[in-house]
User: What shape does this take?
Amino acid sequence: MSTVLSSFESWKHFLSERVEQGKKMGLTEDTISNLAYEIGAFLDEKVDPKNEEQRVLKEIWDAGDEQERKTLARLMVKLVQHS
Assistant: This one.
């Protein structure tokens, strides 16, 4: 996991691959977004930001309430789908 988090680009690539895997397994967009939210919550609690982008995302995550965090997770999924 440490190499995945070493740069923002490697994180986006990793997330993009997981989103594609989820789609191939038949997961809905809502399910994928909920999983992204759970991953975000885990990272917030357990992982120190490794770069500027991760620090900004953590600050935004920490500033938001649960609904805003779910929105941020959905936006991250959309970001990697359009990259």
Notes: The chain has four helices and no strands.
